[in-house]
Design a protein that fits this description.
With 468 residues, this protein is mainly beta. The chain folds into two domains: 140 residues, no CATH class; 304 residues, 5 Propeller (Tachylectin-2, Chain A), CATH 2.115.10.20. Helices cover 3% and strands 43% of the residues. It contains two helices and 34 strands. The strands form ten sheets. It has a four-stranded antiparallel β-sheet with strand order 3-2-1-10. The radius of gyration is 23 Å and the shape is globular.
């Protein structure tokens, strides 16, 4: 059987903009059957540059090439992919004249970090591969239930589940399930929770919605009640969320449930605390912080959040992911300095005027941390879910120790009828199955953000699959 890998870019369209089209796309031609990988969505994106005023300058790719490199000592085949770096709109990038970006790969699934090198483009846009590699590629990109560890029938939920409820979280607690989300139906004012004996029960028409934190001008809770999440920290239950006062300036807060308290009773929650740096000063002044999440690893505690400077001005930094250590005793106060973890430097993250890295949430499996986050247009169809990963015993506060996926793990190309999937979280049901909870829209045009649930499958190597 003849197997060929081909690399290419796409023509930009009204829906598939130049930010996406000017990236490396890859297809596998096997026995005459041409199969675009990643549903014909870009796989390799150029990393944007940072200018002297800390702004992102988006880059694109043109004229990709693929070729076989000299084999490693093990005899494993190694391939190179190179492309000309251009500006976002495809025009010439003078800073890359005479050079090309280079990635290496042995499987067309995992890629090295890009390097800008002096090299020619005399190679072609396709290369032959053997049957074994073709089989590996098919199993990764074309998911079948029988290629996963979990071969039990997948549970499917209808879409949409709840219209106008974004950034959703489902939380099992003491024999019941609880649902939290940003409530677009109330102009993002107030924190609301649902309680039910089952996940399906959370979305029944008769299920009561409890207001547990209301508008309060005196306390400065007036707008942007955003992205609430349940987390158990040091044996205590917290809600992490953002809120702002009269001035639009959302900031990360935490609210703790009193001992023996009822989640659905507003009187059982303590006064929210604004998150602080290690010195006791607030996490940000004048800038915004939001979408805070928590995880632990090797008995250490961490917070990850989205931070943005100069939003709405020519100096907009775009939203960035930061990480810092905290303690189980006082999780609202950092124990170390915030560290920049990720910026929206890829075209799929920096698109349609929205420059986003936000909505982080951790899934842990087999000693590995999968930190999912969202990029792209937060209220549009290009919103998508990306991934940063590291081993649990890795150097978690070292950004270079994390591996960042070059393309999203879920996009509007993933599931028919779901546009802008993003800001996700995870939960396990009573059977131990893992589910991805996220919001998406019902049309490519502007439409309400709606709650969706999709079971997470796992490949034979243990890696999660969101977009099957």
């Amino acid at each position: 059987m003849t197997n060929t890998i081909k690399v290419y870019t796409r023509e930009a369209t009204e829906d598939y903009t130049s930010s996406l089209a000017n990236s490396v796309h890859i297809s596998l031609c096997s026995n005459g059957n041409d199969m675009p990988l990643n549903r014909n969505y870009g796989i390799l994106f150029a990393t944007g540059a940072i200018d002297g005023e800390d702004r992102i300058v988006e880059k694109g790719l043109s004229r990709p090439r693929v070729f076989r490199l000299q084999a490693k000592g093990s005899g494993e085949a190694v391939f190179g992919i190179s492309a000309e770096r251009v500006m976002q709109d495809g025009s010439n990038d003078e800073s890359a004249d005479g050079k090309r970006l280079l990635w290496t790969t042995s499987d067309f699934i995992h890629f090295s970090k890009e390097e800008l090198l002096s090299c020619d483009d005399s190679s072609g846009d396709e290369v032959q591969i053997d049957d074994n590699l073709a089989s590996i590629i098919k199993q990764h990109y074309f998911i079948q239930l029988n290629t996963t560890v979990d071969t039990s029938p997948a549970k499917l939920y209808r879409f949409p589940l709840a219209e106008g409820w974004a950034d959703p979280v489902i939380f099992p607690w003491e024999g019941k399930y609880y649902f939290l989300a940003t409530n677009d139906n109330t102009n993002d004012v107030g924190l609301y929770v649902r309680e039910a004996a089952s996940v399906d029960g959370l979305f029944e028409p008769e299920t009561e919605v409890h207001l547990i934190l209301d508008y309060n001008e005196e306390k400065g809770f007036m707008q942007t009640f955003w992205a609430p999440e349940f987390h158990v920290i040091g044996g205590e239950l917290y809600i992490l969320f953002a809120v702002s006062g009269k001035k639009w300036e959302p900031q990360s807060h935490m609210m703790r449930l009193r001992k023996g308290g009822d989640i659905s009773n507003p009187l059982d929650w303590e006064q929210p605390k604004r998150v602080e740096k290690a010195d006791g000063s607030f996490l940000a002044e004048g800038d915004i912080t939001l979408d805070m999440t928590y995880f632990s690893a090797c008995a250490k505690h961490y917070l990850v959040w989205s931070y943005r400077k100069h939003i709405g001005t020519p100096l907009d930094s775009g939203s960035m992911l930061y990480i810092a250590s905290t303690s189980a005793e006082r999780p609202w106060r950092l124990t170390g300095a915030p560290v920049l973890l990720s910026r929206p430097l890829f075209g799929w993250e920096n698109i349609q005027g929205t420059i986003n890295n936000e909505g982080p949430y951790v899934l842990k499996k087999d000693g590995k941390i999968y930190l999912y986050y969202s990029g792209g247009a937060a209220g549009g169809y290009t919103y998508a879910i990306g991934l940063l990963s590291i081993k649990e015993d890795g150097d978690i506060l070292n950004p270079s120790a994390w591996e960042k996926s070059p393309c999203p793990l879920m996009s509007y190309y993933s599931l028919e009828g779901q546009y802008g999937p993003g800001h996700n979280s995870f939960f396990k049901d009573a059977e131990g199955r893992t589910f991805n909870v996220y919001h998406a829209q019902t049309s490519i045009g502007r439409s309400p953000r709606c709650t969706a649930i999709r079971q997470v499958l796992f490949r034979s190597d243990g890696t999660p699959v969101l977009d099957w």
